[in-house]
# Entry
Amino acid sequence: MARFPEAEARLFNEVFVCRKCTAKIRAPRMKVLRGLVACRKCGSKALRPKRKK
# Structure
């Protein structure tokens, strides 16, 4: 995988993963921290940042 800033931003910035169903969601970080964003698939508010491998 390429390691340049544009690719890193596109793949990891403001991308979160649902802890229950592992769906990916792109949302602003502050909304996720406040609990205003829920998973589209299962409705859970338990989100984590996408892991950088």
Summary: The mean pLDDT is 92. Residues 5-12 form the longest helix (8 residues). The chain has two helices and three strands.
